[in-house]
Specification:
It is built from 4 helices and 15 strands. By secondary structure, it is α/β, with parallel strands linked by helices.
Length: about 270
């Protein structure tokens, strides 16, 4: 049995044996290395039988830093949502970061059930731990540059745990990650990485982060005019590269590539 499937089997066995959890208990993360540090979760719509829904997750590049994630249970999520991309049909969950207007909106459609901001308007770090049907969404706060200075906790890396997969979106990341960040992120099977080379981080710094995360599937985003080859060449021969003619792909725990692969979808 492949190691990743064996790990998924053990996780299912372990979590399946846990007693029923109260709605205000922390959610056990299959991805994080620091499960005891998670904030309490908000259960929007969840039953224990849905925790290990199998099936394909559909990921679509909508534009800029917005990927649309559709879970096997039918939950639609849009990342770094500004309203320009990923709004048709309307997602149930959106995540935002405030570095630029192309990553958030002050006026999200009222039909969106859950608006998760990567910053806390009241100050301090944003804390999200949301379960909706078959997906668990959490965040790891990072800092952003604002007017030449670093603003603490102004950005978030969002992590989506669904169908046994751990999917991460690095947001508008402005600094290298520390060990504590990597520990809080945990395993990422799929990671969405900004490769603009300057507005977020240099290509060197982003390849360092991506290499350490060592995800099975790397999805570039936020590219602007940076040649895609600048990123793929620095990632080295240890990472395969696939250019796909479609804006969408389907992925499951069983279909992850055996070799870490940079997948460039149409429009990136």
């Amino acid at each position: 049995m492949p190691l990743r499937l064996f790990a998924a089997f053990l996780a299912a066995l372990f979590f399946g044996s846990l007693p029923t959890r109260a709605a205000d208990d922390p959610v056990p993360s299959k991805c994080t290395a620091i499960a005891q540090g998670l904030p309490e979760a908000t259960y929007a719509s969840f039953t224990p039988a849905q925790a290990f829904v199998d099936g394909d997750v559909t990921i679509t590049y909508a534009g800029h830093s917005t990927y649309v994630i559709e879970t096997p249970g039918g939950v639609r999520i849009a990342t770094d949502y500004s309203g320009l991309y990923g709004s048709d049909p309307l997602p149930r969950i959106v995540t935002m970061n405030k570095a630029h207007r192309t990553h958030y909106t002050d006026l999200p459609d009222r039909g969106i059930e859950h608006v998760l901001r990567g910053w806390n308007p009241d100050g301090g770090p944003a804390k999200h731990a949301l379960v909706v049907d078959d997906v668990y969404v959490r965040n790891v706060p990072t800092n952003i540059r604002r007017f030449g200075e670093m603003e603490r906790d102004g950005n978030s890396i969002f992590i989506f745990e669904v169908a046994g997969l751990c999917i991460g979106h690095l947001g508008h990341l402005h600094h290298r990650l520390e060990d504590a960040h990597y520990g809080a992120i945990g395993r990422l099977d799929v990671v969405m990485v900004p490769i603009d080379g300057g507005m977020t981080l240099s290509i060197d710094a982003m390849t360092e982060i991506t290499t350490r995360l060592y995800s099975s599937m790397i999805l570039p985003m936020h590219r602007h005019s940076t040649p895609i080859g600048e990123f793929t060449s620095l990632m080295g021969d240890g990472f395969a590269v696939e250019f796909r003619p479609s804006r969408s792909l389907k992925v499951s725990l069983r279909s992850l590539p055996n070799r870490p692969t940079i997948v460039v979808l149409d429009g990136v």
